[in-house]
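job 3f2a | input accepted
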Amino acid sequence: MVRLMRRALVPTPLRKAVLGWFDARYISRADHRQDVKDALWEVRTLAREVTSLRAEVVELRAQVTRARLDPARAGRWDDAHRLARETAVALDEVLRNEVLLWQAVDRADATRDRATGTQEPTAGSAG
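job 3f2a | predicted structure (127 res):
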């Protein structure tokens, strides 16, 4: 495609307005070069960070392979877990029995009060 250009006299205010519009709309070559340099610097910085993070991941993986679970320690943990569960079940049963005991005491008090005809506040009732 051939582009034909003609030179024409353009008034200075119009030329400045058009150039100002182009400058505002488009980035200059110098600014574009600086943006490319900044982007390249960011890429290099990120590449260094990725390299250091990869080295750290390798080191952490090595630590994980060195820290294998000791079977004796695992057995003790399993025993402790089993004992904790058994203790929780037993304590739950004790608390249920205590509730049943206090319900029986309240029923006995209510029966005694009805038999004697008195109305004394009990520890569990609001006075």
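job 3f2a | The radius of gyration is 43 Å.
job 3f2a | closed
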